[in-house]
């Protein structure tokens, strides 16, 4: 008994992507169906190479195909194609950066919570999963990306108009710190700073990127606000520390993004727990669970927690982010999981914002 493409599509339309809440056929993820007799080969194209749901999608796909009457064997090929939020070439952000599919803002209600550490490791994590990633450090108060990535050279401008980003750890990197002395940026007035930061967004030759991770200035001041407003971002990641007093800052940051209609992708709790390197005892120095509590309060996803760990600080100071230098460590695994969760949330935004390709059963 031979199997028809219609049977295969009918089976695949019962598999729901748990992140996107839409079936694989409607989401346009089922490709290249090749049937020969009672065997089928097909390709599943995920919406990100960092898909947090791949295991579940694979198990459900296999179960669905096993239930197709007459189908004796199947072979699955996996691919990934990151989609653009808002549709490529639409909206102010995409018009500014036509080759950039998704801009991810990393923000925090206040300084020092590890926003840059999260931005750097998130970017390296997404790249490690196989995505094309850029990292833009717009934190003029303390541009730490040059140090955290170990980049000491300055970017060049071959045509005198655009800047070539630096390349490190599989990322394209640009920082306000490459171009301006921090004490100089600090005395600039808001509009001048905004202009300089927009130049960094616009006049950098980013090329084609799946994700541009943008490390915002801390807090909810004018510059963070106007920058968030000027780029059409897929969403924002909020970084916080776990103690209850940090909650007020999260509330402020959330309302800033609400004001400019940028979806908050979720909350990362940094410096969650300290594990003693000598006796392995866990201490909740800054308490624990504040990030999760805030996520529940706003009904937004909790993206993960990062332990307070000496190696994270040392890696940042040494210019070799933990995800690049010690990818198997507990802290790097935490960042990699956060990267998967962020990628999943961005995919959900992209599916929400563009019409889905519809594959007709023949
Ligand atoms: N999970 C962690 N464990 C240990 N040290 C950490 C952790 N996260 C961040 N740090 C360290 O804390 C310091 C502040 O982190 P970072 O610069 O990322 O914070 P920030 O919120 O971006 O600060 P700023 O507001 O100054 O930009 C850095 O020295 C960094 O290495």
Automatic annotation (TrEMBL):
GO terms for molecular function: 4 iron, 4 sulfur cluster binding; ATP binding; ATP hydrolysis activity; ATP-dependent FeS chaperone activity; metal ion binding. Gene3D superfamilies: Fe-S cluster assembly (FSCA), P-loop containing nucleotide triphosphate hydrolases. InterPro entries: FSCA_dom_sf (IPR034904), MIP18-like (IPR002744), Mrp-like_CS (IPR000808), Mrp/NBP35_ATP-bd (IPR019591), NUBPL-like (IPR044304), P-loop_NTPase (IPR027417), YlxH/NBP35 (IPR033756). Residues 6-73 form the MIP18 family-like domain. Pfam families: FeS_assembly_P, ParA. GO terms for biological process: iron-sulfur cluster assembly. CDD domains: Mrp_NBP35. Keywords: ATP-binding, Hydrolase, Iron, Iron-sulfur, Metal-binding, Nucleotide-binding. ATP binds at residues 109-116. NCBIfam families: PRK11670.1. In the C-terminal section; belongs to the Mrp/NBP35 ATP-binding proteins family. Belongs to the Mrp/NBP35 ATP-binding proteins family. Homodimer. Binds and transfers iron-sulfur (Fe-S) clusters to target apoproteins. Can hydrolyze ATP. This is Iron-sulfur cluster carrier protein.
